[in-house]
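Write out this protein's structure.
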Amino acid sequence: MMKLYGVLVLFVTFSVASGLRCYICVTSDPNGCTNDLTCPDGLDRCASVMMDGLVTKSCVPSATCIDPMNCCDKDLCNSAVPTGPGVTLLLLSSALMMLFI
């Protein structure tokens, strides 16, 4: 039983020490980002932002996570293409329409 606890402690320690991995790129192809990086100390979020037709993905400090940037804190979680407010508004308006139909 003690060996099991030792293995669990070792696993948890290793997973915390390995750091966050994020996709990093600047591209016009939303699905073209395949490079990833283990984020250095102090950069604790993965980020995606789409502006002027370019998708930028990188490691960032949590303090810089403001609109229009999408941030997350799991390994390679910034793989999805960030959606703009248009999609959210479309879904919200569709849901409201369903309430009144």
